[in-house]
Write a structure and sequence with these properties.
The chain is α+β, with helices and mostly antiparallel strands and about 625 residues long. Among the domains are: about 10-65, no CATH class; about 75-315, Roll (Pnp Oxidase, Chain A); about 325-455, UbiD C-terminal domain-like (3-Layer(aba) Sandwich), CATH 3.40.1670.10. It contains 18 helices and 30 strands. Strands 5, 6, 7, 8, 9, 10, 11, 14 and 19 form a nine-stranded antiparallel sheet that branches. A five-stranded mixed sheet has the order 21-22-23-25-24. A five-stranded mixed sheet has the order 26-27-28-30-29, sandwiched between helices. The longest helix is centred in the middle third of the chain and has 20 residues, at about 325-340.
């Protein structure tokens, strides 16, 4: 369905008991984050929150996409898989052989539907231009400061509209924007993104780059700005397909660019490629760590327009799960079918686990029919659009339910030989990956958990079991200096977690020597090393840290039949790690105590303790960077 405005979507959320209105005053500086973090970590993502009293003229909507149900409501479907099924049905109709002219004529209505998804330019002004301010002040909106060590306030849910200066083809991306003054923000687009490519084209031409930023409106527009669609495909066309109605566009007031007529807020401006960049950040990011400060282009605001009763949409990101996890889940379900139909025909299902923060961990199942097929799929996926940022890929057989982690684990135990079934490669990484030795470049690991054909079996693994795991842990603690805790995480005792205090640069070498002397560990497949503060019984958090804190090739050590993976913090002193290591995201105690005291007045249900109190032991010091 097509939503007329963000207010229309809010009405639908409220009718479906998916919204809480908060009338008590809540400060956009940290307090909204603290409340949202508590709510978004509830089972199924809690509810959307509308903060109506922020000290500004505009209410704040947040966590609107923070559940699978709300994502389905946002995109007008009962189930997110329905969208993929529609894409598959349409593709089959378009590509199936046509025997005669009658069958070909029957396709005309389908072609008409597709043309109906294309954005339409209107004359005159849109609802997003009911109020026009040519002396703009971005600080009049309740823009959030999300985490204590953030460099400032950030617009976190923008649809950034740019055009290729050579082709005129539009791109809509989502890039955070730090506010510096009334008319100036940074534009944080990564070097791999289309917006950055457009910027480079303007720089070659020596021209200023017109940019418009839309906020709110139909949630399908917002989602489409996050979608990993091919270059040179208009995200607003995808939005038209999702909402079954073309997106109406109008001319911006001060820039040569079109903007959505029904958005809530439009920010117009330009970027001058000849200007020096501005130092932006740090920012509490979706990895659960701070992304550190760096230089990005300046965005100069020339005009702000908005609806009479505009609503300011926002989101926070941090230690998973957060709202972005459910946006990623929608992408997983929607783009599974196009990936299967265009690149990986054997692909059956895909899972982007919440704790893999989108790019760290992907699990897929395939219809395997020949030797080496999992490696073929690995290469195909790592060469496909934003999948190039994936760091750890696990491939299973089609009969494995990749949404069921016990099923996935059993496939790992049954089919993975550590000596032969871990495959490493090098390639681009997300620039937010803090664990790679080099910025935005490092190693990747594929775990081949498929059944093996005779051609693939080169080493026969001995199937043994640890009968007395408690005795093994006692021996580990007796032998290993700095070992704080140890935990077998599965009933078959094939994966072992160790929490250690690394004290010198030889620690890993010494640890390996000790592990080799414990005969019972020959039955283990994988040992993962964590920092001493980590709760080894918290499996989701351990998955988050294990996938986030490693460069797979650098941090994997093969010992007999198992692999030791170092998922601890890396330092210059102990690991010769030369980059800054970021701190995890934890709210300051003052804000936590303020919300604790205010909770009853918020009328949002039973008291929920702060996730930050749980994760606080993992924070090393104040600030965004771990002190060396």
């Amino acid at each position: 369905m097509a939503y007329k405005s963000l207010a229309h979507f809010i009405d639908v959320l409220e009718r479906n008991n998916e919204l809480i209105r908060i009338k008590e005053f809540v400060n956009p500086d940290l307090e909204i984050t603290e409340i949202t973090d508590r709510i978004s970590k509830l089972p199924d993502g809690g509810k959307a929150l509308l903060f109506e009293n922020t000290g500004y003229d505009f209410p704040v909507l947040i966590n609107a996409f923070g559940s699978e149900k709300r994502m389905a409501l946002a995109l007008g479907v009962d189930n997110l898989d329905d969208i993929g099924a529609e894409i598959e049905n349409l593709f089959k109709k378009m590509t199936s052989p046509k025997d005669n002219i009658i069958e070909k004529l029957k396709m005309l209505p389908e072609l008409g539907k597709i043309s109906g998804y294309m954005p339409k330019n209107l004359t005159g002004k849109g609802r997003s231009q009911e109020v026009i301010d040519k002396n703009p002040d971005i600080t009049k909106f309740p823009v959030l400061k999300c985490w204590p060590a953030d460099g400032g306030k950030f617009i976190t849910l923008p649809m950034v509209i740019t055009k290729d200066p050579l082709t005129g083809i539009r791109n809509v991306g989502m890039y955070r924007m730090q506010i510096f003054d009334k008319k100036l923000t940074a534009m944080h687009w990564h070097k791999h993104k289309v917006g950055a490519r457009h910027f480079n084209e303007y720089k070659k031409l020596g021209k200023k780059m017109p940019v418009a930023v839309a906020l709110g409106g139909d949630p399908a527009l917002t989602y489409s700005a996050t979608a990993p669609i091919p270059d040179n495909m208009d995200e607003f066309m995808l939005a038209g397909f999702l909402r079954k109605q073309k997106v109406k566009m109008v001319k911006a007031i001060t820039q040569d660019i079109e903007v959505p007529a029904d958005a809530d807020i439009i920010i117009e401006g330009y970027i001058d490629p000849e200007e020096d960049f501005i130092y932006e950040g740090p920012f509490g990011d979706h990895t659960g760590f701070y992304s550190l400060a760096d230089y990005f282009p300046k965005f100069h605001i020339t005009c702000i327009t908005h609806r009479q009763n505009a609503i300011y949409p926002s989101t926070i990101v941090g230690i998973p799960p957060q709202e972005d996890a459910y946006i990623g889940k929608a992408t997983e379900r929607i783009f599974l079918v196009p990936m299967r139909m265009t690149m990986v025909p054997e692909l059956k299902d895909m899972n982007l686990p919440h704790y893999g923060v989108a790019h760290n961990l992907t699990i897929v199942s395939i219809d395997k029919t020949y030797a080496g097929q999992a490696v073929k799929v690995m290469n195909a996926l790592w060469g496909a659009g934003q999948m190039m940022f994936n760091k750890i890929l696990m491939v299973t057989d089609k009969d494995v339910d990749v949404q069921n982690y016990e099923d996935v684990y059993n496939a790992f135990i049954k089919h993975v030989n550590i000596k032969t079934d871990l495959h490493f490669s090098m390639g681009p990484l997300d620039i937010l990956d803090h664990s790679a030795s080099k910025y935005a470049f490092g190693s990747k690991m594929c775990i081949d958990a498929t059944h093996k054909y005779p051609e693939e079996v080169s080493v026969q693994e001995e199937d043994t079991a640890i009968e007395n795991p408690e005795e093994v842990i006692i021996e580990l603690k007796a032998r290993i200096f700095g070992l704080e805790n140890a935990e077998f995480v599965d009933k078959k005792n094939k994966i072992l977690f160790l929490a250690v205090n690394k004290s010198n640069e030889d620690y890993i070498d010494e640890l390996q020597l000790h592990l080799r002397k414990i005969d019972a560990l020959r039955a283990v497949k994988m040992i993962i090393l964590f920092d001493k503060e980590v709760n080894l019984k918290d499996l989701p958090s351990c998955v988050w840290l294990a996938t986030g804190n490693i460069d797979p090739k650098r941090d994997s050590y093969f010992i007999d039949n198992f692999v030791l993976i170092d998922a601890s913090r890396k330092t210059l002193e102990n690991d010769k790690f030369e980059r800054d290591w970021p701190n995890i995201l934890v709210m300051n105690k003052t804000t936590v105590e303020t919300i604790d005291k205010k909770w009853e007045r918020l009328n949002i249900g039973e008291f929920i303790s702060s996730p930050s109190d749980y994760y606080r032991p993992l924070k090393i010091n104040e600030g965004a960077i771990v002190k060396k």
